[in-house]
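Quick entry, no commentary yet.
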Amino acid sequence: MNVLLSIGFVLTWSSGFIGAKLGAGSADAVTILMWRFLPLAAVLALLAATVTRASWRGLTARDLARQAVVGALSQSGYLLTVYHAIQLGVSSGTTALIDGTQPLVAGALAGPLLGQYVSRAQWLGLALGLTGVAVVTAGDAAAGTGAPWWAYLVPFLGMLSLVAATFLDRRTRTPVAPLAAMTVHCVTSAIVFSGLALGLGTAAPAAETSFWAAIGWLVVLSTFGGYGLYWLILRRGGVTRVNTLMFLMAPVTALWGAAMFGEPFGPQTVLGLAVGLGAVVLVHRGGASGAGRREAAACGGAGSPGGGGGARAGAEAGDGAGAGAGDGAGDGARAGDGAEVTPVASGRPVRRVRSGP
C-alpha cells in the first residue's frame, strides 16, 4: 500500500507541470490559472463559512494579510512564471528542474540573510545543482524547442518568488490552521489571476475541449490528488520519506513530457537530471549532518561554545535542503500548501515553503 501511495504521490504532484503544458495550446497562462483557482476559492470560501469556521479563531487582519502576501509570492507569482515559461516553449522537465533548485538557493541564502550556518556540502550542492540546470537547459535549447533564450530565465524568477515566500513565512509567529492558510492563498490567487485576465481581456474561457480537460486535470490531479497524498504520506511516513519522493519530481516530469509531448530527453538531459538529483541529495545530507552535530553540541551543556543557538542555526540551514514542488505556502502543517514545521533545539519551529504547479 505504501508503495502505491508513493507512486501516486509522485505522479499526481508532477502532473502540475504536465497540466500546464496541456493547457498551453488552448489559452493564455493567466486564463488557465484564473479558471483553475476560481472554483477552488469558491469551494474553500464556502467551507470557511460553514464547516471550518473554528480554523479562523484568533487570526487578526495582520495575520491574514501576511498569509495573502505569502500566497501571492509562493502561488500567484510562482505559478504564473512556470506556466508562462512552458507556453514560451521551455520543456516541462526543464521547468521542473529549475523549480527544484529552490531549496538549494534557500539553503544557501539562509547564511547571509538570516545569519544561519551553511555547510560546505550545501554550497557545493548549490553549485552542482546549478550546473545540472545549465546542462539540461543547454540540451533543451539545442533540441530546437523554439523557446527564446530569455524564456529560460522566467522559471528562475518564479523560483526566486518562492524563495522570498519561504523567508517571509519563517518570520510568521502566529500558527495558522491548514484549511485557513490554503483558503487565503487560493482566494488571493483567484483575485490576482482574475484581475490580470480581466485587465488583459483574456478572462473568457477557451471553447476547446482541451482547455477544460487541462482545468480538470489541474484541479483533480494536481490539487486534490497531489496535496491529499502529500499529507497522507507525511502522516504515515514522516518528513524524510516525503523529501525522498520529492527528489523524483524532475526526472519523472521530464520522462512524462517526453512521452506525452515529444519533449527532448537525450543523454544530455539524463546527465543534467542526474547531476541535479545528486546536488539535492548532497545538500539534504549536508544539512542533516550539520543539524545533528549542532544538536549534540547543544545537549552538551550551557558552557559549550555552540549552545542552543548553534543547534538552531544548523537545523535551519538544513531546512532548505528538501526538494520542493507544490502550490501553496505558509505556516506549519497546513493542508495543500506543502509547508512543514521542524522542531529545533531552541524550541522555536522552523517553517519551509514548498511549491510547484
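second:
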Amino acid sequence: MGWTSRLLHMLVLGCLSSGLLAAAEAEGGKMRVIAGTGEAGFEDGSPGRFNKPIRLAPYGKGTVLVADIFNHAIRWVTIDGEVRTVSGGPDRKGFENGSAEAARFASPHGVAVSRDGLIAVAEAENHTIRLLTPVIGPVDSGPRSYVVSTLAGVPGRGGMKDGPADEAEFQSPHAVAWTLQGDLLVADIGNARIRRVSSGAVRTAAGSGAEGRQDGNGAEASFHYPMDIALATDGTLWIADAGSHTVRSLDSEGLVSTLELGSPIDTPHGIAAGPDGTLYLAEMGTHRILAVSPDGEVTTVCGTGEAGSGPEQLNRPAAVLVHDGVVWVADLDNHRIVVCQLVADNEDL
C-alpha cells in the first residue's frame, strides 16, 4: 500500500468511527451533495439554496460556515443538510453594523472562526474586514445571535495603507485565517499581499504589491492573485496563488517559498491544511479537488476533470475544507455544498 493509499485508508476509518462516512457516501461514488439544489437562490432549511458559495470554515461539530457571495450572507450548513443564515441576505446588500439581523454585507468572500467563536469576514466589495461577535456561548453551544462590527478597513474605500485598523485600506480582500495568538491574516488579492491585523493595527506580512512569483523575505516576495490561505498546525501559512498556478508558503520568519509539485495545477482557488500535513486544493481550472502530500505528490480526491452537475462532477469548486474527517467543498457554479468520501483505490475497506 502506497503513502497516499495508507492516508486515505486511515481517513476513511476515521469517518467510520465518527459516523460520518454514511453521510459522505454517494451510491457507487465519492461525493454527496449536502446542501443546495443546483440552482441559484436563497432559502434556509433542507436542502436550502445558495448563490455562489465561495468559502468555508469549521463551525462546531458536523457544521461549517459558508460565505455566500451573491446572497451577501454568512450562513451555516450541517452534515445532515440543514442550512441557516447567520447574517445578511440578498435583499440587504450594503454596509451596516449592529445586530446580525440588521447588518448588511456586500460580497463577503473569506470567512474564519477563532477559537473563542469570533467570526471574521473578508468583505470584497466593501474592502473591509468585518467581525461577528457571539452574544451567547461558544460555537459548540450553537450561538444564534451576533453583533457585527468593522475590524479593519474603511468601508467602500479600496486602497493600500497600513496603520491603525480603522484607517487601513484593503483592495478586495478574499480570505482570512486566525492565528493561535489571535491575530488575523488576510489574503488581500487586489494588493497582491498578505496582511496581518493585530492589536488594532494592520501591517503587510508579505508581498511587494507587484504581481509575480518571487520568493524571498517579506516585501521581496510577490504574488499573483493570492486567492486563499490556510494555517497548518506548525504555524505555516499556505497560500493558493491562483494567478501563478502555484502553492506558496509563508513561515514564521516571514520567508515566502513555492512548493515543488509533482505535476502542474490549474488555478488553485481554495486551500486547506489537513492535520497530517496533507494539503487540499480546490482546483478551479479542472473542476477537481486535489490532495498534495508533504513531498509534493498530487492526487485527485474528487471531481472528474470536466465541469458538470452529475454525481461525481464539480463546476468551478471555489473552496475546500477538512472538517470532522471528511472533505467539504463549496461547489461555486453548482450553488451547492458537497462532501467527498476519501476512498483508496482497489482497497478492501
